[in-house]
Fold each of these.
Amino acid sequence: TTSGTDTIDRAAEMRAEGRLLDSMILQAVAIELAEATAEWVHIRMRREWGIPDPQDTDLDYQFKTKYRGIRLSFGYPACPDLADQRPLFDLLKPERIGVSLTEGMMMSPESSVSAVVFHHQEGKYYAVR
């Protein structure tokens, strides 16, 4: 998921105008929008897989990841190596929606989220050391 490149350009304009706080707020909102969209897609995937969240789901349920399945993003403890993102990008071709990888394997625009999703009932988040 991505918030797109428009936010990068607009945030740069705001900085040039001396509106640093506005620029930072816009970038933060863009990142949170991409993350929220990724979570919404994960909810929809679980529903389509036949493992929907209970009707009485609240934010605590979501924040504590009590649902079945996991969404792993590269660069986080369970998948620390950003280079592992390359095969995903080769497969999905996110350049079609304006997302690319930098030489350091970071996503551009930064307000983008990639993930690998598993629905196994015993899937748990963990840290690789």
Amino acid sequence: MGIPTVQVVPVPLGTGENASLAAWAARLRREKIRNRRVLLVQTPQLILDSFDREIALRRGYYNFPPTGLQYLYESLRGMGLEVTILNLNHELLKRVCDDPDFAASRWLEILGEALDRYAPSVVGVSCMFDTGIAALLAILGELRRRDEAVVVAGGLIPTYEWQSLLDRDLAHFTVAGEGEERFPFLLGLLFDGVWGEAMGGIRFCPDGEIMESRGVTRAAAFDRDLVASYAEVRIEEHHLYGSLNPFARMAGLASTPFAAIQFQRGCRARCTFCAVPGLMGKGVRSRALATVLAEMAFLIEERGIRHFEWLDDDLLFHKDAF
């Protein structure tokens, strides 16, 4: 039996704008908010049912840095929150490689350990790839089973599968598209009852009725310095437990410390088969070149990085900036 179609009910504008969102956030604040801790979780980016320890030991699985969560981390600075990043993909590969007695099927134990250690009031879960869907569902299911924190799902998969996640009661909220402005707005409501500028694209389902916030839906400003976020990311050891891409391996860079870097976000094309426009909106935005170079210098000098992967979908759109 398929998931029934559910009509999204927009939260009304005008007097009491987003009143249902505020009421739901206030209810969750009373029930779930025990401290000011936020845990950001990146899902495993591999197919767990076919996991092979020998492939992991040969560093054959991808081990991408949690760059998207690092942007979220930076967007939350100044809110008085204690934010921690848990890259489950990296931690799973590290545990399997370092502990011969650890079975990959026990990977949810790593999440449980983090939840017990940090006791967060809010857990944000990001999933960007189809290979992570099964892990996403397992993570959300475990979080809702524990029922200890407010659960927010974001990234590419929740952007498109929000209705399924909410209908199954796997998250209290889903955040569509880029989260650098929507997520802080939502957390302001949850922790402090603060509104700020109302943001659209936040979906929720109080009492079985799916609703969506009303407000600004602009593309997020992402010209942020990610250096501080690397306090939560052991980027210098990612290459020890996985690879960045097959081309780096072919070029003999499998043992080279790597990092991801982004100069521009978005793409000039409007290809119907691509998820980028739906996730990031129209147009191409750039970070300041000085910010990018400072981040690269930090990673080279402080973390020993020797290989960078450009994350840009349209790297040369603003080619005059180089």
Amino acid sequence: MKRLSADGLAPGRGITIVCLLLLVVVGFLLRLAPLGRYVTPDEPNWVYRSVRFGDAVAAGNWSEIPSTGHPGVTTMWLGSAAVHLQRWLSPQESGRHLEWIRRLAWLDPEIGAPFSHLAFFLPGGRITVALVCSLALAALLPLLSHLFDRTVALLTIGLLAFDPFLVGHSGLLHTDALLTTFTMLTLVTALSGFRRSRQAAWWPAAGVCAGLALLTKSPATIAVGFVGLLLLWRWLDSIVRGSASPGDWLRPLFHGVLFAASLLITFAALHPGLWADPVGVLQDVFYVADRHLTSVQHPV
């Protein structure tokens, strides 16, 4: 049995929790640095989409869900939640800005008038993204501790908490930091499905994380493909070992079904635009992905 300290925690665990809290809190505060300092070109667009997204969800008008092709759905969920909170905190001022924004048929970047109204809701959206990215760091501790050890887990979380590039993106109402966060959780959870007990329970969790990553940005397909290759490798390895029981080579297939099913359910359940026009939404996603591939910038 592990020896317990006076507070009931195993030796070193209390220190680990304190270190984790410090890393997460300081990392979260660093991610709030952009507040009131600058606005990136894409953020007003995401505020505008979030307002339209929240209005469409509240009205149950699924055909009015913005289809960006990124698809950026997690960003719009968080942005619309921030708008809703802002309306609760300051209903009169929020109502005045929303009335102006809702009259826009589209957002023209060459017209500056809408941006003062959109900027009112931007800090809340940034805070929600920073909070989700910071909480994800805390979720890594039990996952990485069982895969490796607590020292490696804390070192990894510390590197992620203070990485300048990730910190900068995690304080914006955008897609990239959320893509990184959900992709990272997908891979770590999938590895837990290979190495930890009760393996079957980890694959639905990995599928949910992968679904959230795909709802954020289409490059998450790379992570999904990587998990698929890991499952294929485990299946082929069990077949090559001739002494393996039928359960050994059926298990990776079962885990793959759990992963794929939970991914598809998450994607379909959290993307209201699919409920009205699934073909159109998927066409937008593939069009944007193809456009990014064919318009790669080359050095002059």
